[in-house]
Amino acid sequence: MRKLTALPAVEQRAALLAGKQITYTLKRSGKRRSIGLRIDDRGLTVSVPLRASEKWLSSVLQEKAHWVVEKLDGWQMCKQPELRWQDGEQIDFLGELLELRVMESLFATPAQRRGDKLWIFLTGDCDGAQIEQSVAH
Q1: In what order do the strands lie in the sheet with 96-104?
Q2: How far apart are CA 18 and CA 33, in angstroms?
Q3: What is the 3-state secondary structure (H, E, C) of the chain?
Q4: Structural domain span for residue 16
Q5: Please, are residues 97 and 89 in contact by the beta-carbon 8 Å criterion?
Q6: In a shared domain, residues 94 and 69
């Protein structure tokens, strides 16, 4: 009698799809009857029946490869770049792109817009959270 080993319910994998190495999350479920593909801000998630064969999974991924790559690229283009709250960074302020200028001062004062720059005056060394808070007020 052959011993059945339990497959992990969720695992991270990678596959070569349409010439690109794509990482994805594989989810196995006893309730599924077909393979489902979902793309969102976390990337590609592939949901499969509990006992789906590797061959079936691979064929579905290759069949949908161009669609997957196109959708993942679309999500990447829509992602906002991570904002770094530091001197010299470009920030969106009230719908306009301004250069953030952070200056040390004896007194903390509200943010001041001067042309295409947003000046922040803070006392002593400050971190990104303090700069962000000063811009928000």
Answers
A1: 90-93, 96-104, 117-122, 109-114
A2: 26
A3: CCCCCCCCCEEEEEEEECCEEEEEEEEEECCCCCCEEEEECCEEEEEEECCCCHHHHHHHHHHCHHHHHHHHHHHHHHCCCCCCCCCCCEEEECCEEEEEEEEECCCCEEEEEECCEEEEEECCCCCHHHHHHHHHC
A4: 10-78
A5: no
A6: no
* 72, 14: one domain: yes
Residue 84 lies in a domain: no
Structural domains counted in the chain: 2
pLDDT tens digits for range 69-126:
999 988 877 766 667 778 888 888 777 888 989 888 888 778 888 999 989 888 877 7
Of 54, 11, 12, 60, nearest to 37 by C-alpha is 60
- 113 belongs to a structural domain: yes
pTM, to two decimals: 0.56
Considering the domain architecture, whether residues 65 and 27 belong to the same structural domain is answered as yes
Query: Do 67 and 112 belong to one domain?
Result: no
